[in-house]
Write a structure and sequence with these properties.
By secondary structure, the protein is mainly beta. It has 4 helices and 15 strands. A hairpin with a 5-residue loop joins strand 12 and strand 13. It folds into 2 domains: 3-152, OB fold (Dihydrolipoamide Acetyltransferase, E2P) (Beta Barrel), CATH 2.40.50; 162-262, OB fold (Dihydrolipoamide Acetyltransferase, E2P) (Beta Barrel), CATH 2.40.50. The strands form 2 sheets. Strands 1, 2, 3, 4, 5, 6, 7, 8 and 9 form a 9-stranded mixed β-sheet that branches. The protein has a 6-stranded mixed β-sheet with strand order 10-11-14-15-13-12, with no helix packed on it. It has helices spanning 9-24, 44-49, 99-102, 145-148, and strands spanning 40-41, 55-57, 62-70, 80-85, 88-93, 108-112, 117-121, 124-128, 149-152, 162-163, 177-184, 206-211, 217-222, 237-247, 250-262.
Length: 264
């Protein structure tokens, strides 16, 4: 039996915490209404407010719960999942190359956050293990999945993307699954999603640029491991479903679950 299937004392404790939090109604509070030392179930948006430095270890006995929006099914994220609830979304760094099997899209996941860390990567908050080196967080070890995660695959619920325009991208959008309609890649249409190294022929993580009808633009980043890296960027106008990313003042998108719906 693998670690994430094991019902541990820790998992039972999580369930008790969530039950007490639900009865108290604290999961519906705005972030500012929580005490300085929160306890129980909190929203993803609130959890992210606890990141006070480049790396913040979570000392409070708190948990978040949400649904998996994207994993490595199409290679769009490597050793990372994105978990979303009604308040927002967050990347979680995990030491696994098979996240599509362990954390399938639409599965409900509860994360017990005590002793994990929040890393601030250029303004994008990532949840992971306490860092041991130069990174803001380490990946959560597979041997610890049973300690931190409670994964429910029996009642899947798809994360619905938030319809948004390029102009409306904001700090609240970071980590969310969004849908951008009526955008085009203009003169980059027809190129592959990822460039290749001219010397080695290896694929490179590449950004293409999507434009709306008014000319506003946003970068769309595709990592080199993506399954459709060699596919052509589509012609015309269409819709993208993607996770909003951010780094040092600039927003970008990473397509989720091959969410590309374009016509001519």
């Amino acid at each position: 039996m693998t670690a994430y299937h094991t019902i541990s004392i820790r998992a039972i404790r999580i369930a008790a915490i969530l039950l007490s939090a639900t009865l108290a109604g604290c999961a519906d509070r705005a972030a500012g209404e929580y005490p300085d030392t929160p306890y129980g179930s909190v929203s993803i948006a609130y959890l992210k407010t606890l990141a006070r430095s480049a790396s913040t270890v979570i000392a409070d006995d708190i948990a978040i719960a949400g649904y998996v929006a994207v994993n490595d099914l199409y290679g769009e994220y490597s050793a990372t999942i994105v978990l979303c609830d009604e308040s927002g979304g967050i990347e979680i760094a995990v030491d696994s190359r098979t996240t599509s099997a362990l954390f399938p899209v639409s599965a409900r996941v509860t994360v017990h956050c005590s002793s994990l860390a929040l890393g601030d990567y250029g303004g994008r908050i990532i949840l992971g293990a306490r860092p041991t080196g130069s990174y803001t967080v380490d990946r959560i070890a597979a041997s610890d999945f049973g300690r931190y995660f409670l994964i429910d695959k029996s009642h899947p619920a798809a994360v619905e993307p938030v319809s948004i325009s390029i102009e409306e991208l904001s700090s609240e959008s970071i980590g969310r699954l969004v849908e951008l309609r009526d955008v085009t890649f203009a003169d980059q249409a027809g190129l592959a999603w990822c460039d290749t190294d001219p010397e080695t022929g290896e694929y490179l993580t590449t950004s293409r640029v999507a434009y709306d009808r008014s000319g506003l633009s946003v970068a769309v980043r595709t990592i080199a491991d993506c399954a459709y890296r060699a596919e052509a960027v589509p012609q015309g106008y269409g819709t993208l479903r993607a996770i909003v990313e951010y780094f040092n003042g600039k927003y970008s998108l990473r397509i989720a679950n091959h969410g590309i719906d374009f016509g001519e």
